[in-house]
Amino acid sequence: MMRPVRTERPLSAPVTRRDAAGGAAARLRRRVADHVALTKPRIIELLLVTTVPTMLLAGHGRPGLLLIGATLVGGTLAAGSANVLNCLLDRDIDAVMHRTARRPLHRNAVTPRGALVFGVLLGVASVTELWLTTNLLSAVLAAAAIAFYVGVYTAVLKRRTSSNIVWGGAAGCMPVLIGWTAVTDSLSWAPVVLFAVVFLWTPPHFWALAMRFRDDYARAGVPMLPVVASAATVVDRIVGYAVAMVATSLLLWPVAGTTPFYPVAAGVLGVWFIRETWALRRAVRAGSAPHAMRVFRASIRYLTCLFAAVAIEAVVQLIR
Q1: Residue 18: is its pLDDT beyond 70?
Q2: Per-residue pLDDT reduced to its tens digit, 179-225
């Protein structure tokens, strides 16, 4: 009588080349995603919203698609570089803030050395690309924006003064100047006005966010205005900056010689945004729960729509 041959099932299936390749691909995707996350893509999107309309206005509605594309690439690389280096210097802060606890450096998904190399390479690529595809002035402005955001705002102002975002926000205004100079290779009053609009927009935008995450900033020891001042003081300043911003936005009308479309659009948007900030002030004064994130989201819509109006104005001038 023949005994049946006994076969044993292996405890685990052997790893095939296909499995190994799939695992390597997954690790590569995660690594790429972690590096991209360091660049803060959502912030970059907001910065670039101001670039294209400014270029359209500077080029009287026809700056050229290749030039727009090249400028956007250079601006993206510059903003990415500044954000990566910001994450590197702020990794101790990010580790204790709930809002930023999942950032790659805190999770050790990217090493500090790797972040440094990545940030520097992005910066060099940005300046080189803008120099080769646009002009030297745009490249210099991009380098200045990176240096200011990292060296002045992140390394000096952020941990030392409640006015950190007021002055540090100047770096976020640079895409306007870069977009204008990419087209004209020069500066004039029109881009200066747009620069000032973004400069005055930044404190209400960021202070509203900081009100929502006040405890996070306090835990990290960052003296954002909502941490060191009363809510009443913060909302008063938010309203003040909003009024100054709207008034400044109307200066583009005489400076750039726009059609009546732009001041009407800017005025309507401005009145709406001031009402949103005033509602926040009224809620704080009344002692009710402030809806700071409503103002934060409104500020994004305001800036997007205002620069959309700038773009439409450029097209109107072209077909007029």
Answers
A1: no
A2: 999 999 999 999 999 999 999 999 999 999 999 999 999 999 999 99
Domains and CATH numbers, the chain: 34-170 (1.10.357), 188-320 (1.20.120.1780)
Q: Which long-range contacts (CB under 8 A, 24 or more apart) does 245-253 make?
A: 245/197, 245/200, 245/201, 245/204, 245/270, 246/270, 246/271, 246/273, 246/274, 248/193, 248/196, 248/197, 248/200, 249/193, 249/197, 249/306, 251/193, 252/190, 252/193, 252/194, 252/197, 252/310
pLDDT digits (tens, 9 = 90+) for 234-276: 999 999 999 999 999 999 999 999 999 999 999 999 999 999 9
Contact 201, 299 (CB under 8 A): yes
What's the whole-model pTM score? 0.90
- Report residue 67 as tokens: 């030039």
The H or E element spanning position 194 is helix 189-212
pLDDT tens-digit map of 82-126:
999 999 999 999 888 888 878 888 788 899 999 999 999 999 999
- Measured in whole angstroms, the distance separating CA 211 from the mean position of its chain's CA atoms is 19
Rounded to whole angstroms, what are the CA distances from 115 to 85, 145, 182? 7, 19, 29
Sign (positive or negative) of CA dihedral 59, 64, 65, 66: negative
Residue 230: Cβ-neighbour burial (10 angstroms; 0-12, 13-18, 19+): exposed
Q: Rounded to an integer, what distance in angstroms lies between the CA atom of residue 18 and that of residue 46?
A: 41
End-to-end CA gap in the chain: 102
The string over 25-37, giving b where at least 16 C-beta atoms fall within 10 Å of a residue's C-beta and e elsewhere, is: eeeeeeeeebbeb
CA distance linking residue 112 with residue 114, whole number of Å: 5
Q: Are 250 and 267 in contact (CB under 8 A)?
A: yes
Please compute, for residue 39, the number of CA atoms within 13 A of its CA located in the half-sphere on the CB side. 22
HSE-CB for 229 with a 13 A CA cutoff: 17
